[in-house]
C-alpha cells in the first residue's frame, strides 16, 4: 500500500514489500500497547525513540507496519534497527503531516484495493465502508463492535471535538474501556440490546464525557453478533436515523455471518491438525511444521463446555463462544489455537514458557468464563489440563481436561473453572458412576428395583435413602434437607429396607447405595 512519497517514507521492510495491510489502528502512548495481525499502526504522540515500544509490540502481535514521526535527524537509523529486530515494517511520517490525514489516506487506499486477495481483509473493508455509509445517513459518528466490545470498524470524523471520551478511547484501544462499559451495564444498555431488535437510546452524560447515542444489536436469528453505535456530534442526528440504523444492522449481520462461515484453507488445515493432535490420531510433527512451533516446549489444553446443555447448544452459539475464547487467549498467548471437537471447545497452548504454572492457566480460563457470562449471557464450564513437556503429550492434557469437564457436568461441581487437583474426588466419583452406568451387571438389582418403584408410584424412597446416607445417617439433618418431619424420614428408610431387603447398617451396602442412587434415572 502506498501513501505517497511527500507524506510517508519506507525505512524498513524486514518481511519484504509484499506484506498485506488489512486495517489501520491508532496507538496512543498512554494506552496499553497492543496490535492485531495485519494492522498498520499509527504511533500518534510517540516521536523518535518513544516509538520503540510500538515497534516491539507490532512485531510481537503480527502487525504489518508501524508509522512514526521523527523528532530529529539520525533517529531513522535507530528506529530501523529496532524495526528489523522486531520483524515489522517501519514507515516514517513527515513531522508537519496530520495524523488524521494519514489515517484518512490509509483507509482510502484500503477501500480502493483490488477485491479477492484476502477474505478477512475484504470483510473488514466492507465493514468500514458500511460504518461510513451509516454515518452519512444518520449524521453521527459510527462504530461497529462484536459481542466482546472489540471495535471491528468505525467511521471517519471530520471534527475531533465532536468525538467524546468513550468513542476516542474505544477507537484508540480497539475496545470499549472497562470503566465506560461498566457504566453502560449499570444502565442496563447491554441487557436491552440482548433482548430487543429495536434502536436503543442512551442519553448524554457530560459529567462522564459521554454524548447522546443510538445503538442497535446486530443479529442472526436470536443470537446477537455485535452492536452498531452512533454517537451524536455537534449537529443533531437525522430524522431517519432509526431506520438507517436498523438497515445497517441487517447488512452488518450478513458480513459477520459470512466472516464466521468462511475460513481460509490455511485456517482449516490448522484446525484439522490441531484437532487430530488433541484426539491422538496424528502426531505433533505435522502441526509443528505447519506453524513453525517448537514441539519440545511445554504445552497444555484448556477445555470449555456449555455444561449439561452442551449437546443442545446451537452451532452459532458455539461459534460465538469460539470467537470470544480466541480473542481472550490470543491476547495472553500468541500461539494459542482454538478448535472444536464434538460439542466442546479446546484451547491448545503450545510452546508455553517453562516457568508457567497451573494457577496462571486457571486465571486465563476464569477470565474467559466471566467474559462469556457478561457478553454472551452464557454459563461456561472451564477445565485446565495438565502442563505437559511437549506437543507429543498434548493428548494427555486433553484427556485430563475432558475428565474435569465430565465431572463438572455429572456430579454438580459448583466452581466454573477447575484443574484436576481442585476436584480430584469429584472426578474419580464421576468416573466410578460412568462405570456403573455402562455396566448394568455391576449394579445391585435391589437398588434398581427401588428406583423403579419410585418411578411407577411417584415415590421418594430412593431420594430419601440417598439424602440420609449423604447426611451420614443424621436423621434430623436429612429431614431438614427434604423438608419433612424426622419421623417421616425414619418411616421412608424402614419402608425402603422392607421393599428391597437392604440393610443400611452394613457399610458395603451403604457405599454401593450412595453410588448407584446417584445415577440418572434412565441408568
UniProtKB/TrEMBL annotation:
Pfam families: GGDEF_2, HTH_30
Residues in CdaR GGDEF-like domain copies: 288-406
Positions of the PucR C-terminal helix-turn-helix domain: 461-519
Domain of life: Bacteria
Family per record: Belongs to the CdaR family.
Protein name from the UniProt record: PucR family transcriptional regulator
Organism: Streptomyces sioyaensis
Amino acid at each position: 500500500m502506498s501513501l505517497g512519497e511527500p507524506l510517508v517514507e519506507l525505512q524498513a521492510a524486514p518481511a519484504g514489500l509484499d506484506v498485506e495491510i488489512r486495517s489501520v489502528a491508532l496507538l496512543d502512548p498512554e494506552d496499553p500497547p497492543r496490535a492485531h495481525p495485519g494492522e498498520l499502526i499509527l504511533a500518534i504522540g510517540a516521536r523518535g525513540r518513544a516509538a520503540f515500544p510500538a515497534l516491539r509490540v507490532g512485531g510481537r502481535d503480527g502487525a504489518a507496519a508501524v508509522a512514526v514521526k521523527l523528532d530529529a535527524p539520525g533517529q531513522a537509523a535507530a528506529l530501523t534497527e529496532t524495526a528489523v529486530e522486531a520483524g515489522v515494517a517501519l514507515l516514517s511520517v513527515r513531522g508537519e503531516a496530520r495524523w488524521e490525514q494519514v489515517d484518512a489516506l490509509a483507509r482510502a487506499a484500503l477501500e480502493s484495493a483490488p477485491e479477492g486477495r484476502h477474505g478477512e481483509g475484504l470483510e473488514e473493508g466492507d465493514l468500514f465502508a458500511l460504518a461510513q455509509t451509516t454515518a452519512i445517513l444518520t449524521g453521527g459518528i459510527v462504530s461497529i463492535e462484536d459481542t466482546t466490545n472489540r471495535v471491528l470498524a468505525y467511521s471517519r470524523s471530520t471534527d475531533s471535538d465532536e468525538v467524546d471520551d468513550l468513542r476516542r478511547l474505544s477507537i484508540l484501544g480497539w475496545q470499549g474501556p472497562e470503566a465506560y462499559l461498566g457504566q453502560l451495564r449499570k444502565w442496563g444498555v447491554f441487557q436491552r440490546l440482548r433482548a430487543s431488535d429495536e434502536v436503543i437510546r442512551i442519553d448524554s452524560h457530560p459529567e462522564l464525557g459521554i454524548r447522546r447515542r443510538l445503538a442497535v444489536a446486530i443479529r442472526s436469528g436470536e443470537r446477537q453478533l455485535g452492536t452498531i453505535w452512533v454517537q451524536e456530534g455537534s449537529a443533531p442526528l437525522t430524522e431517519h436515523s432509526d431506520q438507517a440504523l436498523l438497515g445497517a444492522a441487517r447488512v452488518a449481520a450478513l458480513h459477520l455471518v459470512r466472516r464466521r462461515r468462511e475460513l481460509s484453507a490455511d485456517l482449516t488445515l490448522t484446525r484439522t491438525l490441531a484437532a487430530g493432535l488433541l484426539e491422538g490420531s496424528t502426531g505433533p510433527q505435522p502441526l509443528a511444521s505447519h506453524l513453525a512451533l517448537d514441539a519440545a516446549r511445554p504445552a497444555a489444553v484448556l477445555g470449555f463446555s456449555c455444561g449439561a446443555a452442551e449437546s443442545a447448544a446451537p452451532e452459532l452459539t458455539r461459534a460465538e463462544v469460539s470467537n470470544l475464547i480466541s480473542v481472550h487467549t490470543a491476547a495472553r498467548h500468541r500461539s494459542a489455537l482454538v478448535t472444536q471437537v464434538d460439542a466442546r471447545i479446546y484451547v491448545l497452548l503450545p510452546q508455553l514458557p517453562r516457568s508457567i504454572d497451573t494457577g496462571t492457566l486457571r486465571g486465563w480460563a476464569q477470565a474467559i468464563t466471566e467474559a462469556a457470562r457478561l457478553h454472551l449471557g452464557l454459563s461456561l464450564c472451564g477445565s485446565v489440563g495438565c502442563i505437559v513437556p511437549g506437543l507429543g503429550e498434548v493428548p494427555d492434557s486433553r484427556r485430563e481436561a475432558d475428565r474435569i469437564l465430565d465431572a463438572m457436568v455429572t456430579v454438580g461441581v459448583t466452581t466454573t473453572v477447575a484443574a484436576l487437583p481442585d476436584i480430584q474426588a469429584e472426578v474419580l466419583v464421576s468416573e466410578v458412576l460412568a462405570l456403573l452406568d455402562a455396566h448394568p451387571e455391576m449394579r445391585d438389582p435391589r437398588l434398581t428395583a427401588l428406583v423403579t418403584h419410585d418411578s411407577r408410584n411417584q415415590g421418594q424412597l430412593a431420594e430419601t435413602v440417598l439424602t440420609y446416607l449423604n447426611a451420614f445417617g443424621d436423621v434430623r439433618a436429612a429431614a431438614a434437607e427434604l423438608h419433612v418431619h424426622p419421623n417421616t424420614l425414619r418411616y421412608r428408610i424402614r419402608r425402603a429396607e422392607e421393599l428391597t431387603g437392604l440393610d443400611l447398617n452394613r457399610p458395603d451396602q451403604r457405599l454401593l447405595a450412595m453410588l448407584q442412587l446417584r445415577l440418572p434415572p434412565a441408568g
